[in-house]
Amino acid sequence: MNDQRAGVAGQERGRRPGGRAVPARPDASGGGPPDMRAGRSRGRPMAASLVALALAVSGCAGAQGAASPAAPGQTAVRPAAERPATPPAKAKESAPRTPAGQAPALPAPDVAIPTDPSRLARSLTGTVAELRRAVDGWIRDGDPAKGDPPEPVVLLALHQQRIYRYLARNPQVASRTYARLPKALAGQAKDNVTAARNLLSLVRPISKPAQFRVQPPEPADVLLGHFRHAARRFGVEWEVLAAVMFVETKFGRVRSPSHTGAKGPMQFMPGTWDAYGMGGDIQDTRDALLAAANYLHASGAPRDYRRALYAYNHSQAYVDAVLLHARQIKRDIRNYYAYYNWQVFVVTTRGDRRLTGP
């Protein structure tokens, strides 16, 4: 399975069950859980191959080799040519001041992130508060089961994501920022930054242009219905399934297969799909989520999520990241809607490149 970046090359630092070191890359394969069908042995390849991990995981990843050309209806993205790397530090670090009595201005998609811990803490505090209000409004007045999210949700979620990515790469600044945050937000920030840092540790930057297939995800509440259906059928928490899909393909945005052949919104290896796909379509979101729940259940969930997730992807960093994101979704469902609006980034030798979003 993949961590969040389609077709990305990363470096996993875990080991396969047999003790052999596994090269760190998003689409590594390894042993899986015991197969429940007679005649199959233990040690099947893990369900997926971290394609999105490099692309989608907290939105940070790179890819190795050229990905397949875009399929009809999908967007071929050349990150090196079409998206400039994140600008260094010349852009403004904050939005213009807002007149009293008016709603805060929305952050521009690529506005520079403050580097001073105090300003960063204020920016994150304000962003999260406004994002929660925007999500509440979306749920109350909009329809998350249809159409696109409103602009405030999209822009605020992207800004939140970019702050956490910055903190993940700057541990000292992160520590000083946590100390300036309200207690509840500090805990949330630590979970998100730790998860992002774990996923970033699994990939290495790419240097050559590559194509990644991306597309809009299914509506947030349609996905929520799929998660809950799969959870009821196999007894796996829907928040864990959501966190896996978030890390693997950013809720289906990433559609490139890995260079080892992992496919679909949950990044299954074909052999694992044959065993757990129950005759479904590997590219279909509902079928893929049922298969993932089936696989995790066969691997030990809900009794032992760590064991089950490690079977899905042989990396403790991956396991920790998924569980941290799942914990945040359990604490406040608005975090699910925020994650739904996090975008796909690719890590290159020239900086991060965003492949989706505004």
Walk me through the structure.
This is Transglycosylase SLT domain-containing protein. Residues 1-44, 61-117 are annotated as: Disordered. Pfam families: SLT. With 358 residues, this protein is mainly α. 44% of the residues lie in helices and 4% in strands. The chain is built from 13 helices and 4 strands. It has helices at 51-55, 79-82, 117-141, 151-169, 171-178, 183-200, 220-234, 238-249, 270-276, 285-298, 305-312, 316-331, 333-340; strands at residues 75-77, 212-214, 345-348, 351-354. β3 (345-348) and β4 (351-354) form a beta hairpin. The longest helix is centred in the middle third of the chain and has 25 residues, at 117-141. The model is unreliable at 1-45 and 56-97 (pLDDT under 50).
What's the alpha carbon Rg, rounded to whole Å?
19 Å
- The count of domains is 1
Task: Work out the strand percent.
Answer: under 5%
Distance between the termini: 27 Å
What does the average pLDDT come to?
Answer: 79
InterPro entries: Lysozyme-like_dom_sf, MltB-like, Transglycosylase_SLT_dom_1
Protein name: Transglycosylase SLT domain-containing protein
Pfam families: SLT
Organism: Streptosporangium brasiliense
